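Now produce a polypeptide, keeping tokens residue-aligned:
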Amino acid sequence: MKVQLEVLSGARAGRVQVFSRPSIEVGRHPSSDLQFNPDEDLEVSAHHATIVREGARWFIQDKDSLNGVLVNGHLITTDTPLDDTDQIRFGPDGPTIEFRLVPDSVPDGERQSAVSDSGRSTSGPPRPTAEGAGGPDPASRMTQRIEAEIGRQTRKLRTLAAVLVSLLLVVIAAFAYDSVRQRQLREREVTAMQARTDSILRVASDAVQSLRGEVEGLATALQTSQNDVSRLQTDLAEAQRSGTAEEVQRLRRQLSDASQALLHQQAAAYVDYGAIVEANQRAVAMMWVEFAAEQVHVGTAFAVRSDGHLVTSRHVVAGAGGNRRPSRIAIKFADSYQVYQARLVTISQQADLAILKVDIPGGVPTIQGLNLHTDTLRQGDPVAIVGFPLGPDLPMTAFGAGRTVARTSFSAGSISKTLPDALQIDGYGAEGSSGSPIFDQSGAVIGVVFGAEEGSYGRIVVGTPVGQLVRLLERVGG
């Protein structure tokens, strides 16, 4: 099958071309197989896209164009397969073509016009002149015919050379115009990005000052991100002066990503973390798990029911493989020096979760609630983690021998990724707090910490989504 491309909109709407070649270049450059108008179809880049055959399928590739390629209204980011009657738009407001597959019997080229040879004129051979009739001799006639043919061919060559020179000048002018216009567009975009980034940096400075002495880990992360954005701004300005177009494009992407991360951290900076901690911390408990003599693990648990049901991570109470059983479990709630014995109720086989039970007359304080609408969570949403990282090694409050009050630690962060079985948090120093609750900005639990990304130095925390906790609690009943 051959490919037929019909221009549906733009300066060259109505044009239909058929191609049998396996690769079709599309753009405003004169060398393009499907060329758009270089002066009017300004959404189209000089070398915008390539339509290529791979095996029995056709694909379209975006050639790093300025405005992108949309197939049936969807912006593509990778090589995208094409089907018969697909519509391709070059830029959000650019011209549109229709992709069709036609039989091999359809001739290549434009379908609405055909090249005709009927206008060619022919002339018969010259009539010979009889000898003795006063005409030139045969040698003279031959010389005249050769001279005439040479003159005719020379005129054709001159005309062809003039056409080629004119065409070359047009190509050079079009290429220079396109290069200048593309450079001006890039410069305007970079200028706009620099102005937006300056505004983000000013807001970030205010956020850092408001956090000093309150959430120092997040303030440090904000300051680091500020420095990254400022450095990328400087690198981008230098690349505009003396770098390549590829380097400018790479730095623009890096600056955009760094600015977005800084915006997420700013949103996290203005959450009322004090209210979240105040409403929930007394339901959080430090936990000691003993497997054998002198084999004691420390973790965090939190109460979800006033009858003494607590949640923690499975690996804390059952080992990494989930098959160990503790000989003894003890807990101490926040702001308390009293130690209570707890027992293991159940563990999850699907997630890193476990349920404990402690029997205390009058019940226990519980967390504010569970967020059962986690489909509303978005990347960049602020979160808080309350627990006991590093257990009793962190400073506590002592009231005489053996009466040490447990004090929780708090860290702020933001959601960097949501998956069906995992919640990834840019947590800013919460490593070691397995079993700690992860709260959204309203103070409801959205997950349970079970580890940190290797090599992140505790900056990237991973948790189990609250949906799996709900399913485990339903098994326990009550």
